[in-house]
Design a protein that fits this description.
The chain is α/β, with parallel strands linked by helices. 26% of the residues lie in helices and 28% in strands.
């Protein structure tokens, strides 16, 4: 499975501009014959709390575009979006999957809003991990701060082969980003693919990219730099089964 990691410089609270970036990256991912394109957390806005400016309905302009791009480019797209529920009250920080046929087939809502930035006030938290299928392989996703909570991974570890982590992870804590991604791969014996943004947000927070992918043994497969790029990683899901069969750590962790 060839995955395109879309490490982008998110334009602050500018959905139209960021949609143009998504279209450009999807075209590049299609040229590379990717099976999946992954975009960062809240890719249409950056990590902003003024959700009234950019949160969208599940069938809003960004979901509509991503659906169209998935169909046109013949690849799945997993993207971070601010979704306003149909009652127009609650907003969730979500990861939404669009299949090759453009269907929105899965949605995960961030389990742990980042309270130091007031995210818990402006976004409704999710209530459970989500697993879904990409190219016949079971996968799951978490969003940024969820990475610090290993139970969010372990509760579904036996059901998936790949974990995607969509983030706006600041430069100031870049060492934690790398260490935690690698740890989650090792302890869950799964592929972990982390996509981060670059640039400086409108609130002054700096992001240094460093998107990463690790295999089930914790070996590094891909590493992004500090600028916008489409990072490619080719993974074989069968490696997960082989690793777990040889070293049954997950089975032995059961009481």
């Amino acid at each position: 499975m060839l995955i395109g990691i879309g490490q982008i410089d998110i334009a602050w609270e500018d959905p139209p501009g960021n949609r143009e970036t998504a279209e450009r990256l999807s075209n590049r991912a299609a040229e590379k014959s990717c099976d999946l394109l992954v975009l960062p957390e809240l890719f249409t806005s950056g990590f902003s709390m003024t959700t009234e400016k950019f949160a969208e309905a599940p069938d809003g302009p960004t979901p509509a575009l991503l659906s169209s791009l998935a169909q046109r480019s013949n690849l799945a797209i997993l993207a971070g979006l601010a979704i306003r529920d149909r009652d127009q009250k609650a907003v969730t920080n979500s990861a939404v999957l669009f299949d090759r046929d453009g269907k929105s087939s899965a949605r995960f809502n961030k389990l742990h809003p980042f309270s130091p930035s007031g995210e818990d006030v402006h976004y409704k938290k999710g209530d459970a991990p989500v697993t879904f299928e990409i190219c016949g392989t079971r996968a799951s996703a978490v969003i940024c701060y969820d990475l610090r909570f290993p139970e969010a991974f372990r509760t579904v570890a036996s059901k998936f082969s790949i974990f995607f982590v969509l983030s706006n992870w600041p430069s100031a804590r870049a060492a934690h980003w790398e260490a935690l991604l690698k740890a989650r791969a090792i302890e869950n014996q799964a592929f972990v693919v982390g996509v981060n943004r670059v640039g400086t947000a409108g609130n002054g927070v700096s992001y240094s990219g460093g998107s990463l992918a690790f295999n089930p043994w914790g070996d590094e497969l891909a590493r992004g730099g500090t600028t916008e790029e489409l990072l490619l990683v080719d993974i074989d899901p069968a490696e997960v089964e082989a690793t777990r069969r040889q070293y049954p750590f997950l089975r032995d962790s059961q009481p």
